């Protein structure tokens, strides 16, 4: 059963007197007799046969040790069972005892409610022998046993993307910080003994301390991408695991003590970067787990929690606060300060990430979470939420905290009152207010009921409301499938709607169950009672006070579990799966190719799209408006992604990737877009695809990009098929023919040298200005509030991948300094790339304006007296106006030499000054107006080289070539 042992880490074997297994698996158990055999069997069934099981019972009070002895008797030589003389109170001491009893060259740990993956021991041992590692670690999979489909998630799988060996854990701090399990690992036994590695006795979170010591002691660690351990999660278990008993203060005390010990170990070794990484993890994970429970705990718990936390938080590096989410840092800071008035609302945002739970404060042009602690420099830094952009959002885009302030029952009626946060007065005094309370079944597509709110008004920095809801008389649940009812308040302020949930916080839900009349049956539920959801919101649930209800519920449960119920559930799941299948991408592609593409082409039908449906803009818009101007008879279909707002009302609008969208594309006579329709859609031969494109190229494009060159032949062929759909490709210059057309491998006959329709307006504006000697600003200046005595500068950078969370682009210059130094002469318009966005501080309001949300850039270019850009193709368009340009290329070397490369040297051809630093940028702006003449010749040469076909008639030329006959 076991082969003779050997010394050394590879194949240098020598005979010893006792058989030595390859791997010993220590299985610990406490009062888990039913699940222990399954855990042990997962070891006995390993594909590596030379494995032993060492069961250690922590002095159970059930039959666990009896079962362990039975397993040992059934598998002599492979299973041994031991019992501690007294219960240790945690999992550490049983594992320590197990290590002493192991005989294998390698040791693993397994809990009695978990199992090993079938090949776990073989894979871990193979890696250990190959790399001579002290520790080999593989993927742990959490299996949520209470869920219907046994939901699974891999534990920090990014650490295990590939096999790798570390000479020290300091090479990968994330491993030390995040994978703190002892159970998904294989340890060289001599390594454990030599370093006296033991679990702390009688403490929760013993894994954290043990694995930290093991990581730090290991001379070599190997990670493998294989699943090795299945961690079974039973959230509905009567006996909760440690991780599900966070309400016990002992739990938190032990967690902090383990963290202190680990901190000491890191400090002893001078591992400051590891300590910082661990601090970050504590703020964003360990502390958050307990903070989320605070709204549900009493004052005594909170006081003790704060006292324990404040001492530990004092040792957290201030730099750690910079590396976590703002709300995580805010909560930790307020906890350290003991500021409960601001902390509890902040935790509401921590739990409900999109919710704004604070009234905010504005000081010195910055936005802060609250108005306290601003005399503390560190507090100002942590509480500064300007970059989140709350101050830029209208009320209908905010999810506001709505705290329930009173709850009472009288007969069949519930009386409720609440207080809605009003950050920075986003709901202005004098606004017309109205509201309604909505009770809606949690299951989608089921019914909802509304109650008018009798009073809603401003009160200080909040909006308060009161109402009465006749729940018994109005609410008519079905009775079986709609057991949970959520409550929302819908508030209208000057016609703008914002919806909020009712946060219970410390408000007592006084009263008892209210009678209701279910539509289907009262045998299961005849009352409804208030309760608090997992996220702290008011909800109601159906219950029954009937004595027979329990028997009826048991009868229904049996029916659900029985054959009729099984068939019904199977039918429901099939229907749900079918619905999911019908709306999947693969099904839509099949519908397009196998159904819609067999329908006849609809003559005089054009599908327009701009920037993947994100905008009504660019050359497709210019062509569409020219067709309308000429009065052509055709069916116009515009694709949109997101909201259809601002798209033309006289066209049919279809949502991108919807079935109507695919049907429209399949039957259209023409496709007109500036980027690409979905790549996998095959264009029918009868359809003409006019690709207007969206800008000349400075940056390498298409197959000139290193990333595309590195693709396989199959991937390149797939990309080429999508490009070959173009029947016509618009060029505004021979530069396009030499670069874009070549990079896309387009045939000469595809190229249409007519210029960009979007630029017709720019050419006409320049000609009109030259003829009249006067520049017309147009209506946009008044719409934006630009004073007549100020000139307009436009900052329009290219796309940045490193744009922060959600594509946020950080401006490369101090926008407040710009406003202070140049705000008396200029208004700066900021136009980010459509895949990025910017956040401006409130101090620059009216002097710096974000125009990124506007669909069409052409009117903005016409308004601007000068352009500041970097590598954006907008340079080619704006040059047509013959106005000054400045190129702020603060990351030139990185962008040009380390990125995807460029077709020409911007430093040589730029029709305006190129600056690299903020100081040079501001210095250049001081002489901005003189550049009109200084660079006049350069701009003329630039347009001749990169825009010779833009003559102001591109849209008319295209309409005349392809659509003129539709006037008949």
Alpha carbon gyration radius: 34 Å
Give the termini distance in whole angstroms: 91 Å
Number of H- or I-type helical stretches: 35
Sheet with most strands: 11 strands, mixed
User: How many strands?
Assistant: 38
The helix content, as a percent range, equals 25-40%
**Structural class determined from secondary elements:** alpha/beta
Main traits of this protein?
single chain, about 950 residues, globular, disordered N terminus
Characterise this structure:
With 968 residues, the protein is an alpha/beta fold. It contains 35 helices and 38 strands. Strands 15, 16, 17, 18, 19, 20, 21, 22, 23, 24 and 25 form an 11-stranded mixed β-sheet that branches.
Briefly say what this structure is.
The protein has 35 helices and 38 strands. The chain is an alpha/beta fold and 968 residues long.
Topology:
Elements: E1 23-29, H1 36-44, E2 51-57, H2 64-74, E3 79-83, H3 92-101, E4 106-111, E5 115-116, H4 120-131, E6 135-144, E7 152-154, E8 164-166, H5 173-178, E9 185-188, H6 189-194, H7 206-217, E10 221-233, H8 249-269, H9 272-291, H10 299-313, H11 318-322, H12 326-337, H13 340-351, E11 355-356, E12 361-363, E13 366-368, H14 377-383, E14 399-400, E15 402-410, E16 413-421, E17 433-441, E18 448-452, E19 455-459, E20 462-470, H15 471-474, E21 484-493, E22 496-503, E23 514-515, E24 527-532, E25 538-543, H16 549-561, H17 563-582, H18 585-595, E26 602-609, H19 618-629, E27 635-640, E28 652-655, H20 659-667, E29 668-673, E30 688-691, H21 706-709, H22 713-723, E31 728-731, H23 734-738, H24 740-743, E32 751-753, H25 760-772, H26 779-784, E33 791-795, H27 815-822, E34 826-830, E35 848-850, H28 858-863, E36 866-869, H29 874-878, E37 885-888, H30 892-898, H31 906-909, E38 914-915, H32 918-926, H33 931-934, H34 936-946, H35 954-962
Parallel strand pairs: 1-2, 1-4, 2-3, 6-10, 11-14, 15-22, 26-27, 26-29, 27-28, 29-30, 30-31, 31-32, 33-34, 33-36, 34-35, 36-37, 37-38
Antiparallel strand pairs: 4-9, 5-10, 6-7, 6-9, 8-10, 12-13, 15-16, 16-20, 17-18, 17-21, 19-20, 21-22, 21-25, 23-24, 24-25
Helix pairs in contact: 7-8, 8-9, 8-10, 9-12, 10-12, 12-13, 16-17, 18-20, 19-35
């Amino acid at each position: 059963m076991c082969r003779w042992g050997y010394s050394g880490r590879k194949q240098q074997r020598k005979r010893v007197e006792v058989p030595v297994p390859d791997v010993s698996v220590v299985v610990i158990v406490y009062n888990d007799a039913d699940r222990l055999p399954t855990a042990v069997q997962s070891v006995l069934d390993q594909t590596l046969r030379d494995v032993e099981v060492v069961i250690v019972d922590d002095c159970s009070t059930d039959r666990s040790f009896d079962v362990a002895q039975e397993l040992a008797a059934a598998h002599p030589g492979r299973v041994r069972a031991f019992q501690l003389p007294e219960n240790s109170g945690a999992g550490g001491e049983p594992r320590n005892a197990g290590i002493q009893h192991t005989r294998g060259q390698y040791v693993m740990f397994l809990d009695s409610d978990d199992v090993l993956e079938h090949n776990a021991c073989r894979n871990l041992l193979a890696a250990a022998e190959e790399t001579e590692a002290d520790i080999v670690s593989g993927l742990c999979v959490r299996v949520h046993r209470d869920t219907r489909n046994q939901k699974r998630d891999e534990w920090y799988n990014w650490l295990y993307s590939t096999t790798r060996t570390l000479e020290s854990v300091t090479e990968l701090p994330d491993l030390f910080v995040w994978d703190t399990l002892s159970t998904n690992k294989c340890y060289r036994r001599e390594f454990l003994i030599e370093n006296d590695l033991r679990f702390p006795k009688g403490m929760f979170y013993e894994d954290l301390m043990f694995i930290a010591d093991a990581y730090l002691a290991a001379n070599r660690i190997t990670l493998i991408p294989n699943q090795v351990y299945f961690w079974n999660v039973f959230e509905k278990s009567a006996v909760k695991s440690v991780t599900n008993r966070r309400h016990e203060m002992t739990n938190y005390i032990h967690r902090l003590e383990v963290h202190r010990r680990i901190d000491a170990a890191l400090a002893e070794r001078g591992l400051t970067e590891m300590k910082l990484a661990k601090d970050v993890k504590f703020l964003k994970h360990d502390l958050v787990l307990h903070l989320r429970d605070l709204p549900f705990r009493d004052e005594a718990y909170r006081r003790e929690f704060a006292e324990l936390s404040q001492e530990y938080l004092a040792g957290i590096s201030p730099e750690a606060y910079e590396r976590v989410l703002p709300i995580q840092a805010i909560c930790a800071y307020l906890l350290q300060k003991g500021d409960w008035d601001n902390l509890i609302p902040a935790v509401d945002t921590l739990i409900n990430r999109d919710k704004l739970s604070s009234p905010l404060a504005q000081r010195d042009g910055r936005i802060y979470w609250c108005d306290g602690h601003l005399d503390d420099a560190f507090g100002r830094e942590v509480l500064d939420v300007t970059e989140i952009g709350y101050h830029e959002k209208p009320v209908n885009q905010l999810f506001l905290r709505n705290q329930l302030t009173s709850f009472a029952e009288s007969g069949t009626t519930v009386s409720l009152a609440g207080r809605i946060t009003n950050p920075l007065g986003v709901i202005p005094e004098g606004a017309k207010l109205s509201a309604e309370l909505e009770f809606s079944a949690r299951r989608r597509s089921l019914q909802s009921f509304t109650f008018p709110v009798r009073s809603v008004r401003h009160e200080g920095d909040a909006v308060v409301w009161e109402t009465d809801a006749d729940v018994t008389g109005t609410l008519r649940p079905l009775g079986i499938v709609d057991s949970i009812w959520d409550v929302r308040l819908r508030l209208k302020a000057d016609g703008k709607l914002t919806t909020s949930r009712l946060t219970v916080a410390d408000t007592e839900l006084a009263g008892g169950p209210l009678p209701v009349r279910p539509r289907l049956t009262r045998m299961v539920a005849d009352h409804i009672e208030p309760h608090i959801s997992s996220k702290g919101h008011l909800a109601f649930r159906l219950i029954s006070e009937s004595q027979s209800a329990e028997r009826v519920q048991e009868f229904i449960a049996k029916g659900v579990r029985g054959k009729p119920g099984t068939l019904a559930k199977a039918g429901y799941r099939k229907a749900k799966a079918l619905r999911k299948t019908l709306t999947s991408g693969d099904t839509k592609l099949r519908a397009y190719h196998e159904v819609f593409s067999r329908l006849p082409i609809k003559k005089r039908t054009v599908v327009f799209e701009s920037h993947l449906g994100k905008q009504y803009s660019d050359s497709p818009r210019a062509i569409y408006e020219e067709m309308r101007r000429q009065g052509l008879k055709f069916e116009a279909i515009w694709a949109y992604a997101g909201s259809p707002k601002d798209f033309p009302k006289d066209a049919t609008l279809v949502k991108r990737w919807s079935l109507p969208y695919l049907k429209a594309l399949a039957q259209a006579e023409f496709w007109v877009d500036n980027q690409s329709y979905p790549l996998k859609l095959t264009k029918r031969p009868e359809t003409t695809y006019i690709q207007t494109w969206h800008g000349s190229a400075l940056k390498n494009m298409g197959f000139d990009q290193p990333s595309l060159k590195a693709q396989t032949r199959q991937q390149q062929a797939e990309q080429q098929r999508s490009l070959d759909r173009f029947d016509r490709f618009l060029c505004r210059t021979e530069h396009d023919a030499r670069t874009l057309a070549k990079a896309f491998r387009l045939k000469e006959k595809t190229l249409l040298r007519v210029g960009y329709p979007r630029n017709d307006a720019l050419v006409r504006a320049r000609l009109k200005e030259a003829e009249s000697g006067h520049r017309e600003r147009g209506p946009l200046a008044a719409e934006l509030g630009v004073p007549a005595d100020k000139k307009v500068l436009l900052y329009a950078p290219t796309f940045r991948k490193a744009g922060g969370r959600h594509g946020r682009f950080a401006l490369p210059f101090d926008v407040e300094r710009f406003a202070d130094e140049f705000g008396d002469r200029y208004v700066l318009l900021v136009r980010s790339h459509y895949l990025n966005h910017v956040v401006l501080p409130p101090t620059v309001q009216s002097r710096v304006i974000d125009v990124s949300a506007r669909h069409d850039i052409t009117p903005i270019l016409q308004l601007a007296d000068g352009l500041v850009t970097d590598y954006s193709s907008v340079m080619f368009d704006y040059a047509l106006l013959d106005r000054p340009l400045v190129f702020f290329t603060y990351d030139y070397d990185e962008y040009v030499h380390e990125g995807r490369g460029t077709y020409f040297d911007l430093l040589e051809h730029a029709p305006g000054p190129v600056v690299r630093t903020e100081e040079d940028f501001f210095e250049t702006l001081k002489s901005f107006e003189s550049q009109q003449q200084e660079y006049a010749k350069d701009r003329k040469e630039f347009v001749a080289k990169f825009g010779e076909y833009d003559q102001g008639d591109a849209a008319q030329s295209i309409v005349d070539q392809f659509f003129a006959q539709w006037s008949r």
